[in-house]
Amino acid sequence: MPAPTLLTSWVDGADGSGFPAEHLPFGTFSVGGDRPRVGVRIGDQVLDMPRLADNGLLPAKLDGTDAAEVFAALTLNPFLALGPDAWHAVRARLADLVCDPASRARVEPALVPVAAARSHLPIAVADYVDFYSSLEHATNLGRLFRPEGEPLLPNWRHLPVAYHGRAGTVVVSGTPVVRPAGQRRLPDGSIVFGPTTRLDIELELGFVVGAPSQHGRPVPIGEAADHVFGVVLVNDWSARDIQGWEAQPLGPFLGKSFATTMSAWVTPLEALAGCNVDGPVQDPEPLAYLRLDEPWGLALDLEVGLRPAGADPGDPPATISRTSAAGLYWRLPQQVAHLTVNGAHLRTGDLLASGTISGPETGSQGSLMELTQGGAQAIEVAGQQRTFLEDGDEVVLRGQARPADGVTIELGEAAGRIVPATP
Ligand code: CA
Predict the structure, then answer these.
(1) pLDDT at 241 over 80
(2) Element (H, E) at 135
(3) pLDDT tens across 52-68, in order?
(4) 236 CA distance to ligand 1 centroid (A)?
(5) Measured between alpha carbons, how far is 336 from 351 in angstroms, rounded to an integer?
(6) Residue 222 Cα, ligand 1 centroid: separation in angstroms?
(7) Torsional sign, CA 139, 143, 149, 153
(8) Nearest 5°: phi and psi at 271?
(9) How far is residue 282's CA from residue 95's CA, in Å, rounded to a whole number?
């Protein structure tokens, strides 16, 4: 088989970085105090999209809408709503612009260094749905919560279990996370109010919905991916003590809704086309509406970094977990098909998170709950002991994919530092 042709960009440092011309993730940014607008990352630069449009370097109309207006928006939503043909056309045009040396003089004035750009929440989050799609994670938690019985509940292998989360508290990477307070039950049975003492992380992939669907019409599994623009990293922060006390019988509420961090850059699904692999075999075979006829495992390497309070801010975070999204039991098209099978529709800006991603080996779990056996066994992090997060700790999620030989894609990081509870 001939080696795939790699793109070569004239943007310094883009080739061989995690943000080559094959990647082109979308976000929103501002410089100084100016107005946020749409940007696309190439190497360590951001393409100022309204500026490219104003200079006539993008198609003037996208599906009948003025491109300059679409990209001057405060969020990606107007662009996402246009659907896959427009997404593809713009990406193809951008790849030409950053690779063709003849375009350099006209494009260079629209480049802004990442270091000078402030990232904003890239989408207006419509609905936030959190799935529970990792077999290993569901099994680990089942063993912790129900040591006597079957770790998996009877429904788990038949449908992608999920709950509706709080869209309004999804924040962009870098936003501090205030330690939440709430009710919890102490081992002696007394009920107290105060800051959580079991603050945890959840390493997840998030899928960003672009094209909406119609209320009352389920999205067939074969059409599901056409509605999804791209992928982000998500940290679904969790207060385990609040969650454990409140969640009976209706599930997560305040233990989850205080903050959810997503990365600033949305990696288009199109850029990950080369990462599709066979996922795990599903047994029993799912019902017809959940049956996949394509592989849909995503070969994405994921890691959790933790920089404990007091560590030198110049030190890289210590890696406390490494795993892969390829092992996720329930895949994206199944999540979309299930979410809409009752007639509920997709909206532009919906964020569908995978649920915590854990692998089978020690050190591949996506939450501290699992890494520390429910807080029973501390792990060492850069010379300190941790069960759950302490004030000042910073968590950084990273992801990496290799869609072709010689091409590496870095998902934008999802980072957040814990600040003390509000008195
Ligand atoms: Ca979660």
Answers:
(1) yes
(2) helix 135-145
(3) 999 999 999 999 999 99
(4) 5
(5) 11
(6) 26
(7) negative
(8) -70, -15
(9) 38
Please report the sign of the dihedral spanned by the C-alpha atoms of residue 269, residue 275, residue 276, residue 281.
Answer: negative
| pLDDT score of 313 | 87
- Mean pLDDT on 5-32: 96
Strand partners, 252: none
Active site residues: 137
Say what the pLDDT of residue 4 is. Answer: 56
Percentage of residues in the chain having pLDDT higher than 90: 97
Amino acid at 317: P
User: Which CA distances in Å does 213 have to 63, 83, 339, 358?
Assistant: 17, 11, 11, 31
pLDDT at 5 over 90: no
| Closest alpha carbon to 340 in 279, 289, 300 | 289
Strand, helix or coil at 26? strand
Identify the pLDDT of residue 1.
45
- The alpha carbon torsion through 356, 360, 364, 365 (nearest 10 deg) reads 40
Give the residue from 228, 262, 238 showing the smallest Cα distance to 411. Answer: 262
- The mean pLDDT of the chain is 96
Span from the CA of 14 to the centroid of ligand 1 (angstroms): 34
Residue 103 Cα to ligand 1 midpoint, Å, equals 44
The pLDDT of 176-181, averaged and rounded, is 98
CA distance 157 to 251: 19
DSSP of 350-396: -EEE------SSTT--SSHHHHTTTTTS-EEETTEEESS--TT-EEE
Q: How many whole angstroms from 330 Cα to the centroid of ligand 1?
A: 14
pLDDT attached to residue 81: 98
All residues with CB under 5 Å from ion ligand 1: 130, 202, 236
* Cα of 206 from ligand 1 centre, angstroms: 10
307, amino acid identity: R
Q: What is the pLDDT of residues 277-319, one digit of tens each?
A: 999 999 999 999 999 989 999 999 999 999 999 999 899 999 9
How far is the centre of ligand 1, averaged over its atoms, from the C-alpha of 58 (Å)? 38
Rg of the chain over Cα atoms, rounded to whole angstroms, equals 22
pTM value is 0.97
Residue from 404, 176, 355 nearest 252 by CA: 355
- What is the distance in A from the centroid of ligand 1 to the CA of 147? 21
Tokens of 42: 């190439």
